Amino acid sequence: MPKFSVVVAAYNIEKYVGRCMRSLKEQSLNDFEAIVVDDCSTDGTLSVIEDEAGSDDRFIIVRHERNKGRHVVRKDGVFRATGEFTLFLDGDDEFEPDFLERLYERCSTADADIVHFGMTVVPEGVSKGELTAFESNANRPSGTIRGSEVLRRIFSEDEGQLMDWRVTQRTYRTPIIQHAFSLMTDERLNRAEDGYEGFVIAAEAQSSVGAEDIRGYIYHYGYGITGESKIGAGRFGEFSQCFKECIDATEDYVHTHGSPSVVMAFDGFRHKMYELLANDWNVRVLEDEKDEATSLFVQHCGASIAARELWRFVRDRAYPFIEGKAIPAEDDELWSLVRHADMLRVADDVTDEDGMRFRDMRRTAMYYVRELSCRRRFSQYANQSIRVLVTAHKRVTIPDSLILQPVQVGPGNKSDRFVDYLHDDEGENISNLNPMYCELTTQYWAWKNVRSDYVGFCHYRRYFNFTDTFYDENPYGEVMDGSIDEAAVKKYGLDDETIRKCVSGYDVITTGFHDLRQFPGDAETPREQYEAAERLHYHDLEDVARIVKDMHPDYSNDVDEFLDGHLSCFCNMYIMRNEIFSAYCEWLFPILERFCAEADMSHYSKEALRTPGHLAERLFNIYYKHAMRTNAGWKTKQLQCVHFENPDEKTDLAPLVEWEPDLVRGKRLIPVVFASDDGYVPMLTTTIGSMLQNASRDYFYDIVVLQRNISYEHRLAMEGYLTRYPNSKLRFYDVTDLVSGYDLATNNAHISMETYYRFLVQKIFEGYDRVLYLDSDLVIRGDVSELFNVDMGDSLVAAVRDVDYLGNLNMPDGKRLEYTRNTLGMSDPYAYFQAGVLVLNTREMRKLHTVSEWMEIVSKSDFIYDDQDILNAECQGRVHYLPAEWNVMHDCAGRVAKVFTWAPNEVFDAYNASRTNPKIIHYAGFEKPWVNSDCDFANVYWEYARDTPFYESLIDRLARVMADDAIRHSDAALDERVPRHEKAVSENSPIRRVIDPIAPYGTRRREVMKSIGRAVRGKK
Known about the structure:
About 45% of the residues lie in helices and about 15% in strands. By secondary structure, it is α/β, with parallel strands linked by helices. The chain folds into 5 domains: about 230 residues, Spore Coat Polysaccharide Biosynthesis Protein SpsA, Chain A; about 140 residues, no CATH class; about 230 residues, no CATH class; about 220 residues, Alpha-Beta Complex (Spore Coat Polysaccharide Biosynthesis Protein SpsA, Chain A), CATH 3.90.550.10; about 70 residues. It has an 8-stranded mixed β-sheet with strand order 3-2-1-4-9-6-10-8, sandwiched between helices. Strands 14-13-12-15-21-18-22 form a 7-stranded mixed β-sheet, sandwiched between helices. Strands 26-25-24-27-30-29-31 form a 7-stranded mixed β-sheet, sandwiched between helices. α26 links the parallel β24 and β25. α9 runs antiparallel to α10, α10 crosses α12 and α39 packs across α41. The N and C termini lie far apart (about 110 Å).
């Protein structure tokens, strides 16, 4: 038995294989066999092998008749091995003369299945840095490893620095490696076969010993397919396929032979493989082919994997700039990496391990990128000759401008800081006084830290109108508008060019001076106006007036003339030349400092505590008036103040898993959408509560309410209620901007305009390919995860057939049938579905129509059921029909007998059967449980409503309706055509079955309900 079997893989290496063969023949240890496998080379490789081997019987030459790939070559060689130990030698590498001798001395005493030796690395076209890193890792001491640690030390992510996995850098006891290869595939594997083979061998081995001081293997780094030589997208695509095949082969082994520790190591193996593949994308792929290479990366390995690796490169490129507090140049490769990474979109409902790893990486990388982008932006801010600072305490929409610069006031601890805003607590500042000084903390910060020709101030809601166009103002002298969007920027000149043109040449620009006698109310002077302010204290104005006169006697007349005059400008908004601004601050802040020192505000309300900010508004007027009276020589201008009512930043709803990664981790996301207004919140909450009570805990529910006017108090109440369901997140999205400009009137008195919001879903949820849409007048008794996961193929929607509509189709007059065929254009009218419960295939809906196209269709609608008719007309032929129990409409005003029974027999039978165990009850129509406690399925509704924080509100609604009903019946008694009711609520009324349990006789709640009824009827 020879001491070593050396398996040599050779394919088209005519140039190098002779050197390799000679290094074997020159070994000081003669007792070895060399199994040289030529994998059907097409050049002179085989001839060189045969010439060098000659008559030396230590060489066994194997010729493959067809090319099988390096893995099969090694496997073939391993099974031919007869030596005590087996090792591999690639045909373009070589051994030092005493290598086998030194190695055997160590192997014979090591008592190990594997001996890991060192390498001498020869650079062949790679950089010095790449060479150093490779050689350092290859020769790092590994020590003695036993049991499962052999695999862990190579692949487990729990380890610190991992060992290499090269099979050519180890020698093996022959029985061990033959057993390992017997478990491996016979399929062709290339490029990453080392990883696969190394994994299986390490999993089967029980011990490994380090011999890194023996560096007799000479590795030519850069030959063949390794190194930094450039490749095209097609070649990278081949690499991607090879890597994926090796990963799949390893996974097959793990599933068949893997213990828990092997399974854990496999995760590390996968990610290490993908990192190595991605490194080729980064270093070797030609820049103009990287987009194509990225697509091939995704095709073979998946979007989550590819996106994570590309964001890894962004992170690694950005980090040195972060550490060095530097700013990357405009042409730095970082921005190209960001572009490539940002091209990849991963749906947010992908919450498996790969998806979560991608999001973790992107979150870190984007944090760095945002910080670097902000540094660059802040550097540009500092270079502006005009700086108008926009004060904000929350995230808002800011025009894209280098002159309009957002400043976060009072940011407090670092977790609350907006990285892309300037901050009033940096440098010399009084940020801690923001609760009292309001926007003045920004002005103080600018005074001490900003150096530019002009300094100005706006608020996140209020901006100047920088154009020459005069717009209508409200009674208080403000131009009112909605959101800050592109149209608003153009309308009011909120761009750098217009601002510069407007400001240049002037010394002081203010908002307009308005005559208080023209304002609503009785106040005609600033003094009277302050005195009339509800939460302010008039004596504070008198005190600050006294302080000004004491500190600046020459301002005494200006103080009285302003306070007793009629003109004033508001909002602490102005733009000044820097020297004028500095002089104003030197005058203003000592006055306020003295006022705060002398005033006792310890018991002031939150609004009253803002007194210094209110006083400063008056003090600016005094300062301005003094400058005008003393002929300061200012060239001045007054601009209109534009007040935006909806300045809040429009957040993208897609990245929920980025905001709350630990909350979502391990669960698949189910996005659920509702549409509501403020008045419908109690009913909406009941619907959501019923859904979560019955929903599977194995999923995470991303619940979004599309709205325009839900109050802050109602939001808080809903959020507080849903904290009992930790597998859910409630978010609100203001759709005002998306629906503005469209005529969304409905043709049915019982349908609100919120019904159209479902057409916005595909845009708002760009990261989701499927979304569950639910009306807000439902009770959900089934598990919505079953509904969401329905196999709907490429259908646009999944829905239940509308038994009500189908009943109308069969009416003798034929009008609904004619309408459906001619107006809706439906080839099969009996395919009509009910739209209160929908699974939306948003991926396919985006292909059908853009949101703008949907909204245009809606705006021109003259249909009976508005959006429902539109959905049926547009989606016909691509509907997956759900079982009837997923949308069971209640019997509104006897429609089951009057209408539903006219429906096709099969549809009506399905509806009837679904009533025994409905998964969703739909209170469609004008009869609702909170309007008529006697309506169908009302008892089920109140079971869930009782659990919400709006239960009393719903009871109040019901009581008011009851009282109104009593009044109507009382008035109707005058008309013999309307029967008189004996009581508003008779002893046998089903209303009593609802009211009595929730408001028993003698309770306070009962008395409250009775008083509501009496008040509605005009009684005391």
